[in-house]
Write a structure and sequence with these properties.
246 residues, Rossmann fold, five-stranded parallel sheet, 5 strands, globular, kinase
Amino acid sequence: MSGQFAVSDPSGIPGRFVVFEGVEGCGKTTQLARLQDWLQTNGFIEAGQKQGILSSLVVTREPGGTILGQEIRRLLLHHAVDDEPMQFRTELLLYAADRAQHVEGFLKPHLNQGALILCDRYTDSTIAYQGYGRGLDRAVIDQLNHLATQGLTSDLTLWLDVDVEIGLARAQRRGRSDRMEQAQLAFHRRVQQGFVELAQQYPDRIVRIDASCDEQSVAQQIQAVLQQRLIEWYGSTSVGALPPNA
């Protein structure tokens, strides 16, 4: 494999960063795993490595994408509310701390090596949950996000859009719910509105996926969107190994 990766991004970072977003129970974690399998089984990663246009496929998440982040995730999602309620600003700062560690210690090193990264949640979740959901100041959140990311944004964000009630019902079927899932319905409605407005604000980066249909149909939508982006990023020759909407 060539040690030199093609750079088409003006930022000079050879890797690509794809994020999955959405309300609780939207299916993003399931669909991320399906996309990972689709890319690996159909030979795109191997072909890209041989051509020297990417180094690897990497899967991660927020919070919890690093060893330190796993401890922060435990605090954020499983802190016993009865012991001491977590203040909203505390919650925001913990997410920012997790992200700062994740960006510097994990995301940037892999992107600089030419990886294609699939990430379960990123900055848009903080705006939707802590901004729209908790009512914290958007300007403060934007400042914290910039401090934590040092300007690193996703190349593509797949927003899995599903009705809040449907998503929560799916989440409840998984069993024990985390601290976010236990929030009131009104909170989740505000979060959903946050994602709606973010998609309107950043139409080039955020692509809406109809996540109300069956799992296979959702996967096909995602594959179609990503296939087009892969052609833009890596060229049609590299993507030729991928069957359309398998």
